[in-house]
Amino acid sequence: MASPQDIATGEIITLNVGGTKFSTSKQTLTWIPDTFFTSMFSGRISTLHDDTGAIFIDRDPGLFAIILNFLRTKEIDLLNIPVHALRHEAEYYGVTPLVKRLVLCEEVEQSSCGDVLFHGHLPPPCPPLIKESLEERRSSVSSIEAELPRPSSTSRVTKSSPRVSHIRHASDSEALTPRHSSNSSSNSSPNNSTSSPPGATGGAIEKHVTESTFSRGTYMDPLRVTLVKGHQNWIGVAYPHFVCCYRLKEATGWHLVWSSPHLEGPVERIAINSKVLSSNQDNTSRMIAVGEGCLVRLWGVNDRDSREIGVFDLRVPVDSLFFIGSQLVALSHLGKVGVWHAMTQNWQIQDVLPITSYDTAGSFILLLGCANGSIYYTDMQKFPLRMKDNDLLVTELYKDPSGDKITALSVYLTPKTTISGNWIEIAYGTSAGTVRVIVQHPETVGHGPQLFQTFTVHRSPVTKVMLSEKHLVSVCSEYNHVRTWSVTRFRGMISTQPGSMPLASFKIVSLEDMEPKVNYSAGNDFGPFGEQDDQQIFVQKVVPETDILYVRLSSNGKRICEIRSVDGSTITSFCVHECEGSNRIGSRPRRYLFTGHSNGCIQMWDLTTAVDLMTRTEEEKPVTGGPTAQELVHLLDQCELTNSRQTTPSVSPSPSVMAANSHRLSLYGHGASFQGEQVSEAVSGIDFRITRF
């Protein structure tokens, strides 16, 4: 038997790779410089030997055989070979020529311009300046200079001085706290009269203000997109401390129209309305609202200028913010409704019962589901003309027979619905897992809606429900389990013959951080999206830090397409929105998926084309749903699942719209959650932390 020394110095080299023996020449292994093998023979890498003296390498023998064949022949056959796995092995062994070939093979299949569904890219905006008043800057400079050691003639204080570095992080100093002025502009030049010259101590203060503002609580990148909302041909994009508005023009595409000043508090909610009739303006204006804790800030944005309309205090945390017609509505789970009317310029707060869900229909209906099992109705079109003792007309519409908490609501206006809303269908879900459909007939206006049908297929609280022309879709908190039914209609109205028929059952499994960043839940709501008279979709984001989304039909869970970030950046939020068609003949509205990313950019995807392509090739490709087992394992490789980290993901049930905001957010939905019990459960051999009600 040859000794290890003879094997290492001879021409014939025997390798034991993962239990498989390979014999080759030293020249074959070392003709490429600076590889794993040249380092091994030079002694820079320690080697292990088996009982026969062969050099042991603990790697995959199948992939090594392909690499060894390349070293022998300088050729590679990629038929039925996993290119990504082979590239990983080639990088380990340092076989640079093979790595370059494999990288090219991968790049041929991918493009930085996306696939056929990629519709456009909006670069990140420039964040607004953080301003201080002259008095605050002078006070800050004086307080810092008083603590700094006096520089001698041979030394000077620099920005990297340990003393200055300590002062930068003294966040309890009142003089160093940035203040926001209502008339500040994002277009102001940094070279103003209050700025300190370069290299002066004022530069340290300016840097401190920036750092301290973005480091309160959980740190977030100032350009991380947290929310995207759309209305007609406008979208509003929220970042941690400012918001932007973009407008679509028919010939020139998307343009950045407006950017807000820097906001001290984190932006938690946004709402946008591109057509609001105002009393003091001849034309329509665009409005964007921002929720910061208990405050609501409202701006009016036109093509030429913008103005801050006001700052309104709801007195409790704002959980949902949206427009109904020309009225801005803010809701809190604690039982408060705030309404601002564009015509009267009036802000009014109404106390109601604790709100657990809501839905809107058209430009005049607001339904509130409450913890006492009742559904309340408000005709927003009559506000503020019809008021009772200066209060909103909030009337009880229906009471659940079991008195369970109303956790999800969906209103469907039939073709026979008039301006008074006398023919309405409502589906709702409860905390007990029940799904009910109630119908308001013209002849029962004085008696309230009548119970039409009840489903008890869910055993967990229902967190979403959607009633459309053809389908009834419900989601419960158990791994976002979806049940769907086909709806039978007669002349547009729901029919009892033969009634709703079971259609599909599937899951929208979504993992998220146990300690989510601001707006994670609100910015990653998975749907369903779409008009109630059209096919609706789910958007599935499996793990928090990923560049892949799965778009699926809400009726049966079938996969429509897979969206992958064109630049590889993490998708931090998304929104499905339908833009108006152009003035050209034959043009129709198109549905887009807007994805916000960690680097501040917005990417757009054409979902109308995706649905059309899926319909054409439905018979040619296999029916798929969410991620396959192999795709799921690949996604989980990107996500740390150890319980020791705060970013441990949890299977994220979809909540109803409103719930206890004071508890940790761990559910998808409109930004609210119920407090749940943290349990551990093994799923497919992997331990997840799950939130249960």
From TrEMBL:
GO terms for cellular component: plasma membrane. The keyword Phosphoprotein applies. Residues 181-198 have a biased composition (Low complexity). It is found in: Cell membrane. Residues 151-163 have a biased composition (Polar residues). Residues 11-80 form the BTB domain. Pfam families: BTB_2. Its main location: membrane. Keywords: Cell membrane, Membrane, Phosphoprotein, Repeat, WD repeat. It comes from the Eukaryota. GO terms for biological process: protein homooligomerization. Residues 140-204 are annotated as: Disordered. Accessory subunit of potassium/sodium hyperpolarization-activated cyclic nucleotide-gated channel 3 (HCN3) up-regulating its cell-surface expression and current density without affecting its voltage dependence and kinetics. Interacts with HCN3. Belongs to the KCTD3 family. This is BTB/POZ domain-containing protein KCTD3. It comes from Owenia fusiformis (Polychaete worm).
